[in-house]
Design a protein that fits this description.
Layout: E1 11-14, H1 18-29, E2 34-37, H2 45-49, E3 53-54, H3 58-64, E4 68-71, H4 76-83, E5 92-95, H5 101-113, E6 117-124, E7 138-143, H6 145-155, E8 160-163, H7 170-196, H8 204-218, H9 221-231, H10 242-258, H11 267-278, H12 287-293
Parallel strand pairs: 1-2, 1-4, 2-3, 4-5, 5-6, 7-8
Antiparallel strand pairs: 6-7
Bound molecules: NADPH dihydro-nicotinamide-adenine-dinucleotide phosphate.
NADPH dihydro-nicotinamide-adenine-dinucleotide phosphate binds next to α1 and α4.
């Protein structure tokens, strides 16, 4: 197929690592004319064979762009290095490179100073999910709203698009907050398997099924916490209060001891719960713990 005769929105993609290559294939498969550039030119060859146009230089790639210029590089520093000195005036930059919210906001200002529009994205998918909407992968976007609306259909080709506001830092904040919650969950799963691992006659696969189901059932607690924080009533709808949970924690810790498992992953969180109960808030759920974690005193 000659993608260059297509009427689909042309895309310029900078960065052909694992994720960038997956994005490239999704746009090519959907018939979008695609121009690619990568620091190490060898990575462009397979995509050229699949119909991508290869820009000889970064400046050439950006200068020829009439659609979104998508960046999928290692980190924010590599974005700065790559675009340093390029003429970005009038360009639509879509940065899918993982960055901190502060880096995304600074990059938005940086782009604006160079006459470019800027949308930041946080990818909630791994490369095999890209181009497969049924996998549930998606990208958080924030920043220039008109830019997002103009290119929404194109951006939705590799993965679903969730626009979360005009603050360029919010896509990264959603991304990192979800990954942080996932990290806590990974810690819990690790502790759980450490508890059951040495047991003879305990079916690890059957245990895994119960564990995954239980975590799914408990995930809805996020909605309860949001409702409590928004209403300001941290006891609203609480069915498992901190006083009860801190008592239960003693059983969890005693079992860890009995099973010869170090409780270092659970300990700090349980300590936070105990502290909140000691402050006289045993009737709350988990929402009040968020305030204890803030280092700036914000409630
Ligand atoms: P890779 O390590 O596979 O690729 C990194 C890319 O960045 C390559 O194209 C590399 O070029 C380029 N690069 C690195 N440093 C520089 C630099 N200084 N100047 C120019 N180019 C540079 O990473 P991925 O493709 O997997 O990830 C890309 C982004 O996507 C990251 O921000 C990552 O966090 C994010 N992401 C990745 C996911 C994944 O599962 N892979 C999941 C969600 C987000 P070269 O080929 O020359 O080395």
């Amino acid at each position: 197929m000659d993608t260059h005769t297509s009427s689909a929105n042309p895309v310029t993609l900078l960065g052909l690592g694992d994720m960038g290559t997956a994005l490239a294939r999704a746009w090519l498969a959907a018939g979008h004319p695609l121009t690619v550039w990568n620091r190490t030119p060898a990575k462009t060859a397979p995509l050229a064979a699949e119909g991508a146009r290869v820009a000889a230089t970064l400046a050439e790639a950006v200068a020829a762009a009439t659609g979104p210029v998508v960046l999928c590089l290692l980190d924010d520093a590599s974005v700065g290095e790559t675009l340093d000195g390029a003429d970005l005036s009038g360009k639509d930059l879509v940065n899918l490179t993982t960055s901190t919210p502060a880096q995304a906001r600074a990059r938005a200002r940086w782009a604006e100073e160079r006459g470019a529009r800027f949308l930041d994205g946080g990818i909630m998918a791994v490369p095999p999910m890209i181009g497969h909407p049924e996998s549930g992968g998606y990208v958080f976007y924030s920043g220039d709203r008109p830019l997002h609306e103009r290119h929404r259909a194109t951006l939705e080709v590799p993965a679903g698009a969730r626009y979360v506001g005009e603050d360029a830092g919010h896509a990264a904040l959603y991304d990192i907050a979800l990954l942080s919650a996932m990290t806590g969950m990974f810690g819990g799963v690790t502790h759980a398997f450490a508890l059951v691992r040495p047991e003879k006659d305990l079916d690890q696969a059957a245990f895994a099924t119960s564990l995954a189901e239980w975590l799914g059932a408990m995930a809805g607690i996020a909605h309860g916490i949001a409702a409590q924080l928004e209403s300001g009533d941290l006891t609203k709808g609480v069915t498992s209060n901190l006083a009860m949970m801190t008592t239960g924690n003693r059983t969890l810790l005693a079992t860890a001891r009995d099973q010869s498992v170090d409780s270092r992953l659970l300990g700090p969180f349980m300590e936070l719960m105990r502290h909140r109960v000691e402050q006289g808030h045993g009737d709350e759920g988990l929402a009040g713990l968020t305030g204890l974690l803030r280092t700036d005193g914000a409630g």
